[in-house]
Amino acid sequence: MPAERLIKKYPNRRLYDTTESRYITLDEVRQMVLQEIPFKVVDRQSDEDITRNILLQIIMEQESGGEPLFSADVLSRFIRNYGEAAQSGFAEYLDTSLRFFSEQQKNIQEQMGKALEGTPMDYWMKLGEQNMKIWGDMLSASTTRKKES
After folding, report:
1. What is the 3 state secondary structure string of 10-78?
2. pLDDT tens string 46-80
3. Using CB atoms within 10 A of its CB, is residue 7 exposed (0-12), middle (13-18) or buried (19+)?
4. Measured between alpha carbons, how far is 5 from 142 in angstroms, rounded to an integer?
């Protein structure tokens, strides 16, 4: 497992990735989450761990753009479970449910890949992928030549 990356948040709200020695965006932090790269975000001045705050900020941005994942009713239920005696049970239930959902998604993808393997559909999908790669290479070469001219 890769080492946990340290990201420092400066007072100007910028995020600095100490592993890559560069400033990064919130979207790049989101990509780290998607790629399952472990990281920790700390406040530069107080050295406080603010990873949760950054993750919540990413969720807020995701929710405000496009199709939201959480309805007002679901968010209300979340709020009602804060401070209740069952809060830890609720958190554990959510964590277990999300892990199970992720595992099922991976299993379905693997099974679909195996089911299509060797079928005419598999052949056409692979052929399409090859054609797209060739097209991309040709476009890239064409763009490079134009820049050199």
Report:
1. CCCCCEEECCCCEEECHHHHHHHHHCCCCEEEEECCCCCECHHHHHHHHHHHHHHCCCCCCCHHHHHHH
2. 999 999 999 999 999 988 887 888 888 988 888 88
3. buried
4. 38
**Tokens in use for 38?**
């472990």
pTM attached to this predicted model: 0.64
| Positive/negative CA dihedral, 145, 143, 35, 57 | positive
Residue appearing with tokens 């080492």: 3
CA distance 136 to 3: 34
Q: How far is CA 80 from CA 53, 93, 115, in A?
A: 20, 15, 44
**Alpha-carbon gap, residue 141 to 51, rounded angstroms:** 42
Other CB atoms within a 10 A radius of the CB of residue 29 amount to 22
Is residue 34 exposed (0-12), middle (13-18) or buried (19+ Cβ within 10 Å)?
Answer: exposed
Phi then psi dihedrals of residue 42, to 5 deg: -125, 150
83: its two tokens: 């401070």
